[in-house]
Each structure stands twice: as C-alpha cells, then as structure tokens.
Amino acid sequence: MRAKDLLGRNGEALAAEFLENQGMRIVDRNWRCPDGEIDIVAIEGDTLVVAEVKTRKSLDYGHPFEAVDAAKLARLHRLSSLWCREHDLNAARRRIDVISVVDNGVSEPQLDHLRGVG
Amino acid sequence: MGIGRSYSIALVGLNGYIVEVEADIGQTLPNFVILGLPDASLNEAKERIRSAAQNSGIPLSRRKITANLIPASLPKRGSGFDLAITMAVLRAADDIRDIGGTVFIAELGLDGRLRPVRGILPAVMAAVHAGYPDIVVADANAVEASLVPGAKVRGYKTLARLAFDFGADPKDLALDYNPTDPDTPDEEGDVPAAVPDLSDVSGQGEARRALEVAAAGGHHMLLTGPPGAGKTMLAERLPGLLPDLADTAAMEVTAIRSLAAVRSSTVRLVRRPPFENPHHSATAAAIIGGGSGLPRPGAASRAHRGVLFLDEAPEYERRVLDALRQPLESGELVIHRSAGTAAYPARFQLILAANPCPCGKASGKGMDCSCTAMMRRRYFGRISGPLLDRVDIQLQVERVSLADFGHAGEEEDSRVVAKRVLAARKRQLERLVAMGLETNSQVPGRTLRGELRLPPGTTRILDTALERGALTARGYDRVLRLAWTLADLGHSDTPDIDHIGQALSLRQAAAAT
Lengths: 118, 513
Prior knowledge:
heterodimer; A: alpha+beta; Trna Endonuclease, Chain: A, domain 1; five-stranded mixed β-sheet; 2 helices; 5 strands; B: alpha/beta; Ribosomal Protein S5, domain 2; Rossmann fold; five-stranded parallel β-sheet; four-stranded mixed β-sheet; elongated; disordered C terminus
C-alpha cells in the first residue's frame, strides 16, 4: 500500500472514531459504486450523515477543506441517493459532513468537523 | 467565533463617510465573500487579505468568511478597506481583542506590509468629524494623517505588528519582518517650485498695479494684449503676491492634492496658494473634474484657494469656459457620474488672458492687423457675457517700451507687494468677517449699495455713467468692489472719488468687446 493511501486510511479510521464519540452510529465505510466512493455513512437521530474525510500531512498545499469544491459536493449528494436506493432506505433527512485530518506523523493529529456543508 | 466589527472610511469626492465592516465566520466550507457594493479593486481584497494574513503568521479561518460593508447602498472602491476587513475577520475568529471604534485605512501587501493609499487626509478629516478619532494607517501615511487636528493616529509597517498590539498570540507572528518602504514620502518633493518674482517684469506700471489690486481683493481678471506683452508673465506672478493660506483653507487644498496626487503621501499642509495653468485644448472633464466611475477633481478644484489661469482664453471650447460659471458662483463643483455624485470645492481666482484678435496684432492703432471686424468680434464672443460679467478687472496690456525694457530688475519685487496685499487683506477681513466674507470680490451688490453705501458725492461719476447708460448695474457694483480694494491698499477707511476713478480705469472693457 502506498504512503498516501495509508495516510488516508488512517485518517478515515480516526474520523470514524471521532464520529462515534459524537454519538453517531457508523453504518457503512468506503462504500463504492461506479460513480465514486463514500468514506463514511453514519446515522445521527433521524438524519443520515454522509461524511467525506480529507487527510493531509501538512498545510503546505492548502487546508484539506479547501479541496472540497462544488463538484465534489454535488457528487456526494448523488452518491447519498444511490446509497439509499441500494439499501432500500428512505432517510427523512440527509446531510453531508466534511472532516479534515491533519496528521504530520509526529504530533497528535488535528481533526476538524463541518456539519451540513451542502 | 462569531461576529467581528471594525470601521473604515469611504470617500465620495472629498466627503468621507464612516463604513462599518462586520465579518462573520460560518461553519461551512472555506470561502470568502465581500458584500456591500464593492468595486473590482475591492473584491480583489480577498486574495490580498488571505496572503497577507498567512504571511504575517496569523492565517484566516478555514471557514466561510462573510464581510459586509455598511451602509450597503454606498458605493465603495479601492484598496483602503483591506485592513479594516482583515481586522474584522481576525476579531470574528477571536484572534485579536475587541477593536472598539478604531478606524483602519490601509492597503495590504501580499507579504503583510501596510501600504499607503490616496486621499488619506480627507478620509481622516471625515473620521474625526464623525467622532472616530482613533485611526490606524500605513506608516507611510502617518504624517499626512496626523495633519488633521484632533486625530489620534497610529502608523504601522506590518499587519503582524498591528495584530500584536491588538492582543494576537505572538507565538507565530512575523514580528521581525521590517520591510523598507519605497513609498516613503521624500520631503523635498513637497516643497513647491519657486514662484517667479514680480521684479522680472520691466515697466508695465499699470498692469503691475492691476495685479496688486487683483491679489488684494481676490478679483478675477482679464488681460488682453498682443503676443509678447507679458500677459502670461504677469499671471504667473500672481500666486507670489497672495498671502499664505489660513488653516481651514490649507486643509482643503491639501485634501484635494492628497486625492489628486500621483505620489501617495503628503507630509505637510500646503500653505501657498496653488496655481493651475491648463492648456487651452483641455476638455471640460479635465477642467471641472470627471473620469470614469466616481469623478476625480479637475484643474478648477486643484486651483481651489489659488489661481486658475486660462491663457489664450478664447481658444478654449465655449462649453468648457461656461462650465466655470457654476464654481464662480458657488465656489463648488458638483459632478454627476454613473457611480455617484461628487462635490469638490473650487473657489479659485480666475485669470484670463487673450490676444485682442486671432492674429494678435490689433493693439495700439492696429495697423498691422489682418483680421476683419467680424473675426475679432467672433473671437471674443467665445468668452460669454455671463462669464465676463464676473470678471472685475479687465485690463489692456501693451508691449513694453524700449525705455522701460532697460530697467529690468529695478522694479519692486514680489515680497514688497505681497506685504501691501497682506495689509489690505487684513483690513477687508476686519470689515467683512461679520458678514461671513473674506475679500471685497465676494461682497454682493446688495451689501455694496446697502451697509457699505458711499456718500452720493463720492459716487457721482458712477451715478452719471449709470444714468447715461455707459455703465450697467452690474458694472456699477464691480467698480465699487474695486474701489474698496483700492481704498484698503491705500489705508483709507472708505473709498474716495480718486479710488472710484482708478477703479473705473481698471475695468475699462477690452477693446474688442
């Protein structure tokens, strides 16, 4: 496994743990379809949360949040519908969250969580 | 997190308005939005602010930043809002302590330095006037800003230093960065060019006298005469005879210069009356002000409290000349453009120079003149009646004679004449200050024939001339104004018959009119 994939995988694990600590129930991870991938699917109350995790080693190439653009958000919306159809689940509310992980491998990784960005 | 607030100034013409900047940090993906009618240069502030903050060691929040400039209806332009927006955003992120009522006016460099902006003097004047005396500007603007009485000005070189003084965590701040500013005003450039001296003019006793009267009473003047008679030479020497500007006037003149300046900062008040000498091909926009977007001041406003000299006056476009009637009447120019309306002060002393005819030879007996009577009449017709009506002194200047030419340098110099002018101005002010006026040229006809009425014995020649139709009612008033100035120059309390006689000769209409 390449270093950047490992970094991403670690980040996603940290993010899932973080969401669970927030009281969410993780229902799916790394769900794939021909249109793309959802990092984390969780449920909080009556809301289905589709979470995108962005992990970086440093801020040299910009903050992880800045890498989430309008096209990415649109794709996440589409994917959330596809996920619901496949699992035959009609969620009353759906929400997209973004979690940034900055992990330089030395100090404690920094997590940041944005709720309902799109 | 939450809302941050700071203040800046939006200039519309010379008038400044307090602009409240509020910044909000939203819990959503990074973005930067500026609301409140920003123009293109203000919208570019986003990128300058991000880089400047990053390079100062106090990066902006990775969230959606919304900056709102209030009132939203007032058009805002330029880079002077950079600093106020930055401070509001930093405050919203709780990176610095509460700003209070401090006003920020500076542009940011990408490296985090504060850069000077134009028009800082009128902006600071507006801030102090609106009750916001605490002002932060770029170091290079600090001297100019401090010229405003009552302003508590602080100048900073970098954003890092400023943020530190507002309680930012010094851990990451780039406090050691000390850029050398290429915009530092060099003091010598602000010293006005030497004004030519009156002693250079040989002979021309009558013209010199007229110039002195014009200077003393602030009268507008028309000089007619053949090429080479020295009309331009005389006009250029008028500013040297005028007294220094008083505080308010100096502030106005400096404010206009600050706004019109190519150089970005002024270091001292302009104390000498300005002299503007536009070319006769100038357009109306160049003379009265204009330009795209919000109008900028023109030559007439730059000549505020000084002299506007129009050489070869009949060569100007008629509409340019007539556009001067508004400022001659009200001392102000109001210019309308799509982006807004700007009012600039324009209380200047108008000096017109003209040849007697298109070929310029119709003086004396006019033997060499090749112009037809029609051509001559049309030539002067370009200077409209209403404009000439406002010109108190109309003088014919003849070529200097050989006898006088030899005595160059033996004439009185400007300093001697300026002293008499100053004394005459003092007498006028004592008499007129109660009416809110400064010079005899401003006295309305009603006052001349009312409070300042002269005994009938003194005005007899005028009354006769008026009755005969040789003098119009307006002409009558102009003679009276000149007579008062002559009396002031002669240390008399009221004009006598002699002064009236001299005044009549000074406003002798030019030959061709």
